[in-house]
Write a structure and sequence with these properties.
alpha+beta; 10-stranded antiparallel beta sheet; 9-stranded mixed beta sheet; 31 helices; 29 strands
Amino acid sequence: MPVCPKCLKYFRTARGVTFHRAQPRAVCNVRDDRDTELVSAAAAPANERVNHEVDDALLPPSPPKFQPMDLDPDPAWEGGENRHSISPSISIAADSLGRVLVTFPRASEIFEGGETFLTRFELDPYSVCRRLVPFYPFANLDDWRVANFLLTSGLSMRALDEFLSLEATKNMPLSFWTAKDLGARAELLPSGPQWKFQIVPTTHPTREPVQLYFRDALDCIEALFNHPFFADKMDFTPFRLFTTAERLVRVFTEWMSSDGAWDMQHKIPEGATICGIILSSDKTNITNILANIKMKVRNKGCSHAFLLLALMPIPQFIHPVRRMCGVLEERLFHQCLDIAARLGRMMSDPVGNLRYCFTHLVSYIVDTPEARMLACVCGNTSPVTTAMYKDFGDPHRHPSRTAATTLAQLASIECDVLDVDQYFAACERFRLNGVSHPFWRDWPLAEPSEFLTPESLHEWHRQFWDHDVRWCKHALGATELDFRFSIIPRITGIAHFPNGITKAQRDIQRYIVVVIAGAADADVVIAIRALMEFRYYSQATTITSITRDKIRASLQEFHDHKDAIIQNGHRHGEKTKQVLRHWHIPKLKLMQSVALSIERVGSILQWSADTTEHAHIEVIKDPAATTNNHSYDTQICWSLDRSEKCRLFDTALALRGSTSEPTSMQQLGRETNDSDSESSERDKDRSVLDGIWTSKRKTTSFFDVATRLSVSPPDSVPHPLRTFIAGSTIIHLNYDPSLKRVPIDIVAERFKLPDLRGALGDYLNREGNVTQNFHTFGGQRRSPPDVHLPFKELHVWYKVHLQQKAYHDPSDIASTFTVHAHPPDRLLKYGRYDAAIMNVDDQWQWPSSGLQGHAIVHVRLIMCPVLPRGSSGVNQFSDRFLIYAQRFDIVPQGNSSVERTTGLHVLKKAMRASGSELGEVFPLDQLRSYAHVVLHFGRKADNRLTSTNCIHSSPSFFLNKYFEKDFFYAIS
């Protein structure tokens, strides 16, 4: 029977022991030695030696045999009367978007006896002092605010002393006057997970002792798991999403929506909670993240949903063979990684409930070389499948390289592990890298083929620059390619390339397909386009089973046409510059695992290294910049500990100040009889936490602005409203027009619109006596050029801003795009006019309907009729913004609406019988989205073209769907 190692009390199940030791005031609430020591230095008994004759004291622990049944104890446990289930036997509901939500039955049960964030804050040794002085060790709120600013400013000790010695500073009533005094007071603040130090024993000599600075992994996980900011931003129970009640189309989003989380829940005790672990490293440090936190919160650096787990040592091994030094470094890396706890443990959630948690390694975010090192395979070998370099061009996925396979191969090697040369040679037949004890060997249910998740930054974006761009340069020539990029019409807020593509930028992907269309071989264009579609589909935050199949189809289409790249001589070696006849590209093979990974871990975008690399800057590079260039690791740990203390103390003070009685905060999140009061208290706490743990630089939400304006008293806001909702789009105009009270005929001349007056007359005829009608393109112009209008002047705007919700998550704000309608002037000979998507059939809604019921238009004028001076009353036509738009027609491509090689719509300008362009006046509120229209370059671009005249000088165009991912999803 399981026994407590401290009090020797017997329990019916291992789960009972875990809960017994998790009691906050129990004598046995102490982690065993395995949690506090990274590497055991005690010699193992002779009967426990491994099959090679070496001293176990010099090696990491040998792989234990994991028994799945050990994780499935009897659900009964001592103290069961405190157990409360929050999961029904089966739960089928609808989420906020109307999708069918099926949750795992009887998962993530809660128990009484947990602690909230503030409860733990009160356990600090100095909590007695804070009852008298709430800001102790600082005197008052102002004193703390100055201290907090200085402690988190990144200033050096010398700079802090200089600031505190200023005469103006001395006049401030501060409780500290030197940087040393400030640091000493900071040490008295409540702390997060403690840093530890370990001298790591090695099997081979090094020039200096190997020092490891680390924190207990479970302490870091619980610090995130218990944080109040994540109270409504975490998933505790696996679920499955479907688009309809028939459950035919599956939806993959968060990690908890994946099959991997569902299957893991099956393998742990009933009622237990999965704590998904995300690790990330760059060979010098390891960052720890909690996968239960929703991706849109976790992927924001300002949320601080990551904690630095360890500072990895950089050893200098003494060995005559340089390659063997690399093998020893990789062994040490695994040895240092072997610090994360594998067993269940009771943890307090953000609202103070206890949950029985099991850690599961969900993702390890690294680049490709480090992924191979973690999978224990050598170079030119796939870290997640059995494919070798000769198989990288195969159009199918090879079998997964499972943990059992790798461990079996290691077990079959009988030579001495300490003889690195001999052991490495024995590993070569299995394509292994010489690491004898992988860190994941005794982590239950850890599979490298699953937790080495696809990573978009290094595997997709870097692959695009290293390969796709080079193929295009060889296909078109570098000069022609750069020229085409330089004359692409500008998009406000997105990089332009006036000098060509000189360095790696993701924005190149927005234009590459339209740039090479017509110049490169058709099969080459198809191959490039297929990879672009693969990347765009794979980066969606919500992926249905239909989208997953499109991902597979896009990759297959690339393989069907990739031979044209080699046949045309476009694939060259980077160093030799010789034509290559093979596909030995590791990143290309990793793409085969994307569709499967979506099923196992959810949306791939959440595993991008973008977030973790920015986190490494914050937790490593920024603190290192403030050091004195000595003892980097020690000073980095001190700096991080200080910053975390400040954030936690600021959070505790804010929460305590958000209630009338501080003591009542001990009941945060627990049930009360007054549900309205509880709800109000939660809202107040959430507002306080958002003010601390969210970005201070927020994206302007014109949706919020429009909502406030719509409910404002009529006399308090200008009319017509400059910000208003049109369908699913927000339209925002500047308060002041670019041109005020300009006569209609002068506007027509300046914007080169000779039929403007007639178009306004037709608009008024269609509008009739009832305003707010829905307009579409008419036929022949019916109003004469000199038609009488009830107004004579116009206000004119040169641009309008369009903002939409994210395509897959309406709770998020998408990018704001600017549609320009600028007349010709001294700097812009042809003016600047942008394209847009306009709704012409109110039965169809953007973006769900795509282009159905919508037209692609060229916006030539943004205006508002103005009442004559001195007139009284309100004219119904002076209270509505209008645009003059010219239509693009979609050119049919056989049986398809898109061109075969590019997958894009081909456009031409709609013309009247008279030969003039088809243009009409429409209400501004019929606009729905920005559209990027690019000329069809053909075989060779005309060298007279520029980014300002290309649209005016071309007969044929492409609707570039790749300029923005949400636009791509809408029309694909």
